């Protein structure tokens, strides 16, 4: 009789513990998750997806794609029963990871040439992972027009990935390139080293974002007679290769 009583008490304790474990998910907090946030859902395994909504009994989300797409195609939604869910957590996602798919920018600025004379310019930037810069400038008191091609290589962001898509951060890119300046002066063909810093948030990809660009140009005929320039402008950056995570 005593053995049966002990077995019954152990069974009751195990049942109570399992029931308590099933109630560890704060469902009200789950229902307040913002749509399209990256989440991980634990059932028998962890599943990474983007949150859609949560009813009183079910959670709906979408498998996170490898990258954004302008085609409008979406993966089939997933549905989880509340009773099967052991945990739900919001994941930080680096939306800026990968190469830019499209850049449309306009900027203006100035600098100093090798003789410490002022340099003034204005122009536009078009492209993506590779860009074309078209600029009008005044160098050494002479007007000119330059065409420049550059790679846009992502380096890092400050701060790192965040769960709040509205928080701003700085994304830094390196831009090695070559160009040609037509007009009076000692330029002609040149190589270029640039560093571009964009102020953006995950919620604002495709919106107007300010940027700053530092550049050093090296004329092929006289590399030491180049100039240092600073650009301040506004761009529309689009990122189709952004990493939204994987399952």
Number of structural units classed as domains: 2
CATH level-two architecture of the largest domain:
Beta Barrel
Give the total of beta strands. Answer: 14
Please tally the helical runs, counting DSSP H or I stretches of 4 or more residues.
2
- Distance between the first and last residues' Cα: 51 Å
Largest sheet: 8 strands, antiparallel, barrel
Sheet with most strands: strand arrangement:
6-7-8-9-11-12-13-14
The gross shape turns out to be rod-shaped
Uncertain ranges: 4-23, 66-73, 243-247
Strand content: over 45%
Helix content: 10-25%
Write the H/E string, N to C: HHEEEEEEEEEEEEEE
In round numbers, the mean pLDDT is 83
Question: Looking at CATH, which topology of the largest domain would you report?
Answer: Porin
Whole-number radius of gyration?
Answer: 27 Å
Structural class: mainly beta
CATH class of the largest domain: Mainly Beta
Structure write-up:
A hairpin with a 4-residue loop joins strand 6 and strand 7 (118-127). The chain folds into two domains: 2-90, SH3 type barrels; 102-238, Porin (Beta Barrel). It is mostly beta strands and 247 residues long. The model is unreliable at 4-23, 66-73 and 243-247 (pLDDT under 50). The two termini are 51 Å apart. It is built from two helices and 14 strands.
Which terms summarize this structure?
2 helices; 2 domains; single chain; mainly beta; 247 residues; eight-stranded antiparallel beta barrel; 53% strand; Porin; SH3 type barrels; disordered C terminus; 11% helix; five-stranded antiparallel β-sheet
